[in-house]
Every structure is written in structure tokens, then in C-alpha cells.
Amino acid sequence: MKKRIIVGATGASGQPLLIKCLEIIRESEEFESYLIMTESARLTLESETTWKVEEVEALADHVLKPEEIGAGPASGSFQTAGMVIVPCSMKTIAGIHSGYAENLLLRAADVTIKEQRPLVLAAREAPLSPIHLRNLQELSMMPGVRIIPPMMTFYHCPESIDEMVYHLAAKLLEPFGIEAKEYRRWTGL
């Protein structure tokens, strides 16, 4: 049986990262993805990329709507390897931080925290306000929660934006044990 990974997407900027994460998960024989996209994510996707929502959904093994609050990921008995939210808006960060599980994406994150499974948040905002920083700091202290803002890196000498996106997506999936084929780790000077 494949390990399940929940992939959430919100309306923050960074939809190419979502696409690359789904592609990398698809390449792994050990994992299957459960995609939950908010309405804002759908709108942002079409403004940031040439992809259609249906094309992105086709990359996932399973697609769930945010209003499907009774779906599997809403329960701790639904075994998963964890959850990644990419990109993750500050609105979603605030909802997770406060336990405001008004939809399946927020409920799945809530369950992931309570079950102490890995929760990776690709937090997207700049500049960060004191409210954002407080929410992120308090979430980062919870077992299993990792805040991985999509920060550019240059040590792997990227030659294109696509290479940067790939590297960032690989970093987001690393906590689940997914080894992206082209991921170049730091090896020292």
C-alpha cells in the first residue's frame, strides 16, 4: 500500500511550486497524493501559470474539495505520511494556528498536528507582519510542524527559474522521505 500525502494549496503566490510537488510525488512509487485546492488557489493558478485547474488535478492521485469536510483526511484514523501546504497563505497560517477548521484543508492540517505527523507549510508573504511572525513562530514550536518558506538558493547554481522551483519543491517534500531525482544537496565548499 502506498503512503498517503495530503497536498493543500491556497491562493498565495507560488502555484508553480504546487505543480512541481505533485509531479515529484507522482514520480515516487511509494506515495500517492490527495490534493485539496481552495477556490483562491484555483484563481491564482490561472493567473500565475498557463495550467488549467483540471490539468493540475490530473497530477494528483485523488482530488478533494475544501467543502468535503467528511472526507478521509478529516479524521486521524485516515493514515497519512503527513501534509504539505504549498503555497500557504497567511490566512491559512492563521486558521491553522487558531484551530479554525472551517474546511477540509484546515481540518486536515488540524488532524495532522494532533496526530503529530509532519506538516510542512510553504508560507508565502512579504514583508511579514508581527502577526504573521507570531503565528509562524508558535506553529514552528509544535511537534512535526516545519515552516519552509520558498526561499531562493544559489549553492546548486541554478540556470533557470524551473531549476529553482524544482529545488524548492524537493526541499518541501524531503521531510516525508521523498527523494527528488534531480535534487542537489549542499556538499560543502
UniProtKB/TrEMBL annotation:
The superkingdom listed in its UniProt entry is: Bacteria
Keywords, comma-separated and alphabetical: Flavoprotein, FMN, Prenyltransferase, Transferase
Q: Record-annotated residues binding FMN?
A: G11, A12, S13, T38, S89, M90, K91, T92, R124
Matching entries from InterPro entries are given as:
Flavin_trans-like, Flavoprotein, UbiX-like
> Which Enzyme Commission numbers does its entry carry?
2.5.1.129
Record GO terms (molecular function): flavin prenyltransferase activity
Q: Which reaction does it catalyse?
A: dimethylallyl phosphate + FMNH2 = prenylated FMNH2 + phosphate
Flavoprotein domain location, by residue? 3-167
- Per UniProt, dimethylallyl phosphate binds at Y155, K171
| Flavoprotein in keyword set | yes
Family of the protein in this entry:
Belongs to the UbiX/PAD1 family.
Summarize the protein's role: Flavin prenyltransferase that catalyzes the synthesis of the prenylated FMN cofactor (prenyl-FMN) for 4-hydroxy-3-polyprenylbenzoic acid decarboxylase UbiD. The prenyltransferase is metal-independent and links a dimethylallyl moiety from dimethylallyl monophosphate (DMAP) to the flavin N5 and C6 atoms of FMN.
Q: Name it.
A: Flavin prenyltransferase UbiX
The gene is ubiX
